[in-house]
Amino acid sequence: MQKWIFSGVLVIACVFAIVLMFTLPGKEQVAEQEKPTMPEVTMDATAAEATIKAQSCISCHGDQLQGGVGPNLQKIGSQLSAEEIYTIVTKGKGGMPSFKDKLKSEEIANVAQWLAAKK
Ligand code: HEC
């Protein structure tokens, strides 16, 4: 009887360990995501504007990037570099969603450069 209780506890512990393994990112994974490297792209303003409209950036940041749920981005280039914007859009930050699964890194880099030029 006690054997059964013991193996039951063991199974629960294993399931818990497996769940933890998937929910807690590994140390290496965190380090890798810390600063994603921005690919080199030639800035294309038309494509950048199309991306921010298609990706609902404007639904949070405003159709003129004047701000809303998210902060005003009209002069974001005077605060953040293209690399910093690239990191925020890729990884997300607070209420800002991550776009790494929705956009190609080249598209994020293009939008980041376009925004970084807004000073
Ligand atoms: C669901 C709403 C939402 C969407 C969609 C969204 N953002 Fe954001 N964004 C936010 C919020 C909220 C913040 C502030 C995050 C913080 O600082 O905690 C933010 C912050 C940012 C920042 C940093 C601004 C600063 O002053 O630090 C940039 C740059 C940015 N967003 C760009 C974008 C781009 C580009 C897109 C589309 C690809 C986008 N956002 C889509 C809500 C959103």
TrEMBL record:
<protein>
    <submittedName>
        <fullName>C-type cytochrome</fullName>
    </submittedName>
</protein>
<dbReference type="GO" id="GO:0020037">
    <property type="term" value="F:heme binding"/>
</dbReference>
<keyword id="KW-0249">Electron transport</keyword>
<keyword id="KW-1133">Transmembrane helix</keyword>
<keyword id="KW-0472">Membrane</keyword>
<keyword id="KW-0349">Heme</keyword>
<feature type="binding site" description="axial binding residue">
    <location>
        <position position="96"/>
    </location>
    <ligand>
        <name>heme c</name>
    </ligand>
</feature>
<dbReference type="InterPro" id="IPR008168">
    <property type="entry name" value="Cyt_C_IC"/>
</dbReference>
<dbReference type="InterPro" id="IPR036909">
    <property type="entry name" value="Cyt_c-like_dom_sf"/>
</dbReference>
<dbReference type="GO" id="GO:0005506">
    <property type="term" value="F:iron ion binding"/>
</dbReference>
<keyword id="KW-0408">Iron</keyword>
<feature type="binding site" description="covalent">
    <location>
        <position position="57"/>
    </location>
    <ligand>
        <name>heme c</name>
    </ligand>
</feature>
<dbReference type="GO" id="GO:0009055">
    <property type="term" value="F:electron transfer activity"/>
</dbReference>
<dbReference type="GO" id="GO:0016020">
    <property type="term" value="C:membrane"/>
</dbReference>
<feature type="transmembrane region" description="Helical">
    <location>
        <begin position="6"/>
        <end position="25"/>
    </location>
</feature>
<feature type="binding site" description="axial binding residue">
    <location>
        <position position="61"/>
    </location>
    <ligand>
        <name>heme c</name>
    </ligand>
</feature>
<dbReference type="InterPro" id="IPR009056">
    <property type="entry name" value="Cyt_c-like_dom"/>
</dbReference>
<keyword id="KW-0812">Transmembrane</keyword>
<feature type="domain" description="Cytochrome c">
    <location>
        <begin position="43"/>
        <end position="119"/>
    </location>
</feature>
<dbReference type="Pfam" id="PF13442">
    <property type="entry name" value="Cytochrome_CBB3"/>
</dbReference>
<keyword id="KW-0479">Metal-binding</keyword>
<dbReference type="InterPro" id="IPR012218">
    <property type="entry name" value="Cyt_c_BACSU-c550-type"/>
</dbReference>
<keyword id="KW-0813">Transport</keyword>
<dbReference type="InterPro" id="IPR051811">
    <property type="entry name" value="Cytochrome_c550/c551-like"/>
</dbReference>
<feature type="binding site" description="covalent">
    <location>
        <position position="60"/>
    </location>
    <ligand>
        <name>heme c</name>
    </ligand>
</feature>
